[in-house]
Amino acid sequence: MSRVVLFNKPYGVLSQFTDRGNADSPRATLSDFIDLPGVYPAGRLDRDSEGLLVLTDDGRLQARIAAPKFAKPKTYLVQVEGRPDTPQLDALRRGVVLKDGPTRPAQAEAIAPPDLWPRDPPIRLRKTVPDSWLRLTITEGRNRQVRRMVAHVGLPCLRLVRWSVGEWSVEGLEPGAWRVL
């Protein structure tokens, strides 16, 4: 039977078990939180993002979760600079054209600020520029895709939290916590 691990990845943590970066300045990795041998991330979540990272010991399941051809929905809570208007949300819903090609259509809606854990370090807010939150669901997972999509429509990303992957959610998991299903 496959093992599936849900992990609430904190901001600043790499989505890998080792850091092949600068040895003089090691960065936090999955091994700082998860001591379960034989599981590997199904997809990635960039260092500047937080939230759900699914790990498994099943290579086929890993591919079904991460590969764009399986169109597994991934939902993000995105704090952006500015207030989204209907044309910006409609552009996200239709899909936008990024440097690496068009994105698939997304589900996009403005939402009230969610009740999330505080980010460490906190985001930098500007007093003269409002911020707001979006819920964005995509079915692909290109490098920094959500950040690039919202920036493309004029809403720079301040904070990005992956809330769910398919039927799995980060709900009830504190940052740095994990559980085996």
UniProtKB/TrEMBL annotation:
Keywords: Isomerase. It comes from the Bacteria. The keyword Isomerase applies. InterPro entries: PsdUridine_synth_RsuA/RluA, PsdUridine_synth_RsuA/RluB/E/F, PsdUridine_synth_RsuA/RluB_CS, RsuA_PseudoU_synthase. Its EC number is 5.4.99.-. The keyword Lyase does not apply. Residues 4-152 form the Pseudouridine synthase RsuA/RluA-like domain. Belongs to the pseudouridine synthase RsuA family. NCBIfam families: pseudouridine synthase (TIGR00093). This is Pseudouridine synthase. It comes from Thalassococcus arenae.
